[in-house]
Amino acid sequence: MARLQAAKKDLRTLMRHQLKQVSPESLKHQSTAATKAVLSLPEYQNGACIGTYLSMPQSEVFTSAIVKDALQQRKQVFVPYIYDQSVDGQARSRSVMDLVSLHSKSDYERLNPDGWGIPTPDEGSIFERHRILEYSGNAVGEIIQMETQDITRKQRITEHGRLDLIVMPGVAFDNNLARLGHGKGFYDYFLDRYYTSKVALSNEGTSMPFLGM
Fold it and tell me: What single string gives the DSSP state of each residue in the chain?
């Protein structure tokens, strides 16, 4: 395991160096090609609920055109939200990811960049957004159960909690589409909880296509 982690670390370092060499013109061209490929997928065209990462300003395929097209077609679009979650009821916490809904194109364009330059929903707006995994949270991200009078909204979130497609970022991919992420484990942990929660809800297996870029 230690050797595997060391190999992943070395590969991330190598790929990040190579990605920094990609010119803005090449990145724009590759982003256009990738967007065209996503929009042509049957899973995208027929899907009502799309999850996607929001791209950094450099060294990553841009997803802005995907987001805007999906919103224009009145699809539900869910984007990453990072928050702190307690670990086994202890005082310590870990940063985890959920996907939260965008209301509109103007809502998307109002998102402020985080420390990585990634457009990010404001913590104060999370109560107003649908979430894939959790129902709600306070200003520091602690998860709470919604009250009984909000059962209608809870049911609506559950109904739309199945993603038809998720577009994920990656530093590298192999020929079998195995993904090497940025090393934080946000998407791996999200997918693990997603599949667990959906199987528990439906008492059957669940599948969701994903596309890495």
Answer: -HHHHHHHHHHHHHHHHHHHTS-HHHHHHHHHHHHHHHHT-HHHHH-SEEEE----SSSS---HHHHHHHHHTT-EEEEEEEEEEESTTSS-EEEEEEEEE---HHHHHTPEE-TTS-EE--GGGGGGS-BSS-S-B-TT--B-PPPGGGHHHHHHHHHT-S-SEEEE--SEE-TT--EE--SS-HHHHHHHHHHHHHHHHHTS-----EEE-
Is 29 within 8 Å of 64 (Cβ atoms)? no
Region for residue 143 given its phi and psi (left: phi exceeds 0; alpha: psi -120 to 50; beta: otherwise): beta
pLDDT tens per residue, range 131-164:
998 643 332 333 333 333 443 444 344 344 688 9
In the chain, the N- to C-terminal Cα span, in Å, equals: 26
pTM (predicted TM-score): 0.77
* Amino acid at site 169: P
